[in-house]
Write a structure and sequence with these properties.
Layout: E1 19-23, E2 29-34, H1 35-45, E3 48-53, E4 60-64, H2 66-82, E5 90-96, H3 101-116, E6 120-126
Length: about 130
């Protein structure tokens, strides 16, 4: 069983699969080839083999330059930042429909602070008796 590849990056010569689907640096498919053939191609073109899709049959690798690898790592880091984080905080606030003006202003300031801190805010409004 090959080890799982956690991070995107150059894999160098440690390729656990015998048959690979290789894509060149321009995004064109070079087809399926043996690991030794892919490594030879990598050396000839002075590029690095990077794992793109491990779950595919055969696994998909791409020949990339160091610059392309760096740009892809930056894109992935940006996507990860933009996505929701584990342990996202949800703040909940409840209002009465008969709330005084100054209390309403205080609570809206509190909500604004929470939103600046990227919290999810849930507001409940209760009907006054």
């Amino acid at each position: 069983e090959p080890k799982r590849k956690a991070a995107f990056g150059s894999v160098g010569r440690r390729i656990p699969y015998r048959i690979l689907h290789v894509i060149n640096q321009d995004g064109e498919s070079l087809g399926n080839m043996h690991r030794a053939e892919a490594l030879k191609l990598m050396d000839q073109r002075d590029l690095k083999l990077v794992l793109l899709r491990e779950n595919a049959e055969p696994p998909v690798y791409r020949l990339m330059t160091g610059q392309q690898i760096h740009e892809e790592q930056l894109k992935r880091a940006e996507k990860k930042k933009a996505g929701p984080k584990a342990g996202m905080y949800i703040k909940e606030l409840s209002f009465s429909s008969a709330i005084a003006k100054n209390d309403l202003e205080t609570k809206t300031k509190q909500i604004a602070q929470w939103i600046e801190k990227k919290y999810h805010v849930k507001i409940t409004i209760r009907q006054a008796k």
